[in-house]
Amino acid sequence: MSLPQFLQQLSVWALPIVFAITLHEAAHGYVADKLGDPTARLLGRISLNPIRHIDPLGTVLLPLLLLMTAGFAFGYAKPVPVNFRNLRRPRRDSVLVAAAGPGANVLMALVAALLLHAVPYLPEQAAIWLGANCINAIKINVILGVFNMIPLPPLDGGRVAVGLLPRVLAYPLARVEPYGMLIVFGAVFLLPMIAGQFGLDFNPVFQVLGPVMNGVIELLLWLTRAPLS
Q1: Which residues form the Peptidase M50 domain (predicted)?
Q2: Are 155 and 180 in contact (CB under 8 A)?
Q3: What are the DSSP calls for 131-155, one per residue?
Q4: Mean pLDDT, 10 residues at a time, over the chain (229 residues)?
Q5: Other Cβ atoms closer than 10 A to 58
Q6: Is 25 part of the annotated catalytic residue set?
Q7: Are 72 and 10 in contact (CB under 8 A)?
Q8: What is the pLDDT of residue 68?
């Protein structure tokens, strides 16, 4: 990818990524604060300032590497700290706190789809730029929201599952949390890499989640009647 192409790609991916991960994490802290845990607020993490949420690897390096090598970008931010013992009803409220991040992503994808209605009224270059930003924002927020709802701690879906399942099932699932990200890394990156060495196209996570993500995107575009041309 040439430098002009890279800069053009960066200009339409940077804002969607920053907004998606910043509001995702801020939403966790905001809901936790409303339900009794001020930890995130006291640490300044209920903020729209992306600097407070940036993780050097997940917010900067990973998206840049993906953009240069694969032509798309994805990332993550520093998790917002939550002391679940401070929540008024810890079991119920932990579900609400966990669901707040993916919920914020769905809301941002909906807003981006609605903004597509403004594209036809802009000058050509501005229309192209805004349209690309909106489309990327829809994709990134849906991917981030759906991916985080995988029912495996420490992902948000895992914490939702722990809060909703009967205790006999919730406790064993909760004990997986220290190894959860290693399992996710292996399923998302290691297994496809090994399969590729044998000429196989095998990515179990996105082969399962891909249709879900596409379905959510199609639903949002249908609900907003978003113009795509």
Answers
A1: 138-187
A2: yes
A3: HHHHHHHHHHHHHHHHHHTSSSTTS
A4: 68 86 93 96 90 80 67 71 92 96 97 95 93 94 92 94 94 92 84 86 87 95 87
A5: 16
A6: yes
A7: no
A8: 65
